[in-house]
Amino acid sequence: MMRSGWSALLLVAALAGPAIAADENPGVWRLESNEEAWKHLPRALSGGGARLPAWARATARDLPRTTAVMLDLDRVHRTRSPLGPSLRGKMRWVAADANRCEYTRATAEADLQRAGIPDQEIADLKAGPKRWPEDERDALEFARQMTLDASLVTDDQVADLKAAYGDEKLVAMVLLLAAANFQDRLILGLGIAPEEGGPLPPVDVRFDPESPKPPVPERANPADRQGPDEPTKVDDPAWREFDFDALQRGMREQKAAPGRVRVPTFDEVLARLPKGVPTPKNPVRIRWTLVCMGYQPELAIAWSACLRTFGDEAQQDRVFEESLFWIVTRTIHCFY
Amino acid sequence: MGHCEMLLAVAGLDPKALEERTRLLASRDWEALPASDRAAFFFAKKFSKTPWAINDDDRNRLVAHFGRERALDVIWWASRCHYMTRVADGFQLPLERENVFAPPPLASPPNEGAK
């Protein structure tokens, strides 16, 4: 069936049964008022009631604790990054621009202004690579490439950055761009418009770790719903480039890859764990985790909290979600 | 085995089911998948390449299949995949040879060493 014809079928389905409520107005994501959104979130020890970004008002009802830890992830990157406010803000702007995310483009620009970056420097950033300063060009190009097609980032590119900035800042750059690509997609996926009245500073809130878990609305079972028909064939040419065997070859090559940064030992990771963070029960064997925690524990912990909390609140079917991950990695040629 | 396959194994697929699943996902024929899975996977493909092109129709489809709350989960999870892939592509670390997501083997029973 042509995908463009789905709306009519959706209407028929809506008229035929209770599967699709007429008042759902599904295309436009509902934003809670600031006051309502705070009622969904865990209890705050400080900073409660501050103006929340629109994306947090979109997710607060259905993913309350996840929203709380996403606010922390946003704050940590915007205020604690070892890259400093200028380079961090510029790289974040470049990622937002590559994703065509107006919301975060405006936010990154406002962060740069708040940090006192001169207007001319911001104008040069926005004018494109030809006007990017020589000493920041490699980092900004890296931000663009990591966003548009990370599989094309080269070993030489990363080696140059490592030589210029060192391992710790290189890891901070990768984690910044990872978080940017997560946040931009969440905002674009939900169709969140730029903030009315202008971009917001990070929300400085501390949630009470002892706060009772806010309720999470029950999820529907897709099997009980009657959504529109969907195509059964994957007909885009890019999907034909790699068959199953080619993908297996790609993974074998990845096993032999030398890696671009030294993987710290578990003991090195333990030595850098911030105060109050519980020691893992078993030694971590995942190399990504060792790298992220070993070089940038604060940024890594903020992301881990998002993953863990989302898993707890959403309780998605694991085979479904890992299959979706598989589809994403396949689509963007990431052999993991 | 890549991380996705390791995680699918942790999710409960045995080696045969895992190969069948990945062969199905890699194929051009998704007829065997439920319509809701197809909706999510087509969404994820578009979202990966052109996130700025996601529109109300795309969101409508997800909500129609999953309901509003679960559709948010799908969008959140699809967004999360782009964090993980940036980390993977940025560092290009060698893949581990064993399933590092599986629980570690149980320690030997206390008396075993005395045998």
Could you outline the blueprint of secondary structure elements for this entry?
The complex is a heterodimer of chains A (336) and B (115).
Chain A: H1 6-16, H2 34-40, E1 44-46, H3 54-59, H4 64-80, H5 84-98, H6 102-114, H7 119-127, H8 134-149, H9 155-165, H10 167-190, E2 206-207, H11 237-240, H12 244-255, H13 266-272, H14 287-295, H15 297-314, H16 318-331
Antiparallel strand pairs in A: 1-2
Chain B: H1 3-10, H2 15-26, H3 35-49, H4 56-91
Helix pairs in contact in B: 3-4
When the domains of chain A are counted, the total is 2
Order of helices and strands of chain B: HHHH
* CATH class descriptor name of the largest domain in chain A: Mainly Alpha
- Based on the structure given, which CATH architecture of the largest domain in chain A is correct? Up-down Bundle
CATH homologous superfamily descriptor of the largest domain in chain A: AhpD-like
Please give the largest β-sheet of chain A.
Answer: 2 strands, antiparallel
Overall outline of chain B: globular
Q: What is the count of structural domains of chain B?
A: 2
Name the assembly state. Answer: heterodimer
The biggest sheet of chain B, with number of strands, parallel, antiparallel or mixed sense and barrel status, is: none
- Biggest interchain interface, per-side counts: A-B, 108 and 84 residues
Helical content band of chain A: 55-70%
Amino-to-carboxy terminus distance of chain B: 36 Å
Low-pLDDT stretches of chain B are: 108-115
Strand content of chain A: under 5%
